[in-house]
Design a protein that fits this description.
By secondary structure, the chain is α/β, with parallel strands linked by helices. The chain has seven helices and seven strands; from the N terminus they run E-H-E-E-H-E-H-E-H-E-H-H-H-E. The chain has helices spanning 29-40, 74-82, 107-134, 155-175, 196-199, 202-211, 220-231, and strands at residues 20-23, 44-49, 65-68, 89-92, 138-142, 181-187, 242-245.
């Protein structure tokens, strides 16, 4: 089935003038889309990536403060949090699956993937708690369709992303007394560097498109407004929630 043309009628507008935002994994894909949206809304944005400096990427990241961070490295994560002078919004976006093409059914790879996708966001949120509580800040975690559906090829990623949803609820309950809201977004299939190898094969994409009522895959620009909404005052009475951004994929349960 050919994708239908979808046109947006109007764009949401957000004001984050003066806000200090950290987006992990903001050098590419969804993270870059989110970081760009925050910057365009007036925020001062710090991003992380796996390369030594921002100049090592083939696209311009000069509008952001850049910090290299290996999310599976506890020292890197704590150093990242310790270098911040203040923080209003933390977006736990950095993640990986099938690292280096290795099987997540291998015990060591499973553990590595869970460390990056679940342990690191928890550790970073904990390390940033006092900064966020100082100004009534917000955390937005990034889940996945594998938070809700079993996907045989990524047992570690699925376990971690399922944990992200539950972690979001638990932190929301615990940190509400400190004035910190904690929510998550769960994107569907999004066109990005991570999904590019899969999207190159029609036999893999056709069933996914057939299940998606909107008839297309998403883009980082589809996810970014949802993140900004959850971090904004417009969502001041929303916490512990996971907002699905999937073109209707999950409607069929």
């Amino acid at each position: 089935m050919a994708p239908r043309t979808v046109r947006l009628v109007g764009e949401a507008s957000f004001d984050f003038d003066g806000a200090r935002v950290l987006v992990t994994g903001g050098s590419n894909g969804i993270g870059l889309g989110v970081a760009t949206a925050f910057a365009e809304a007036g925020a001062t944005v710090t991003i992380t990536g796996t390369r030594d400096d921002a100049g090592a990427y083939d696209h311009d990241l000069s509008r952001f403060a850049y910090r290299p961070c290996r999310m599976a490295d506890e020292d890197d994560v704590r150093s990242l949090a310790g270098a911040l002078d203040g923080l209003d919004v933390l977006v736990n976006n950095a993640g990986q699956n099938l690292p280096g093409g290795r099987s997540e059914w291998d015990d060591g790879v499973f553990e590595e993937v869970v460390a990056v996708n679940l342990v690191a966001p928890f550790r970073l949120a904990q390390a940033c708690h006092d900064l966020l509580a100082d100004g009534g800040g917000s955390v937005v975690n990034v889940g996945s369709m594998s938070s809700f559906f079993g996907m045989e090829i990524v047992p570690g990623y699925g376990a971690a992303k399922g944990g992200v949803v539950q972690m979001t609820k638990t932190l929301a309950v615990s940190w509400a007394r400190d004035g910190v809201r904690v929510n998550a977004v769960a994107p569907g299939v999004i066109e990005s560097n991570m999904t590019a190898p899969m999207l190159a094969f029609d036999e893999l994409t056709a069933p996914l498109l057939a299940r998606t009522p909107m008839g297309r895959f998403g883009t980082p620009d589809d996810v970014a407004p949802a993140v900004l909404f959850l971090a904004s005052d417009a969502a001041r009475y929303v916490t512990g929630h996971t907002l699905v951004v999937d073109g209707g994929f999950s409607v069929f349960g």
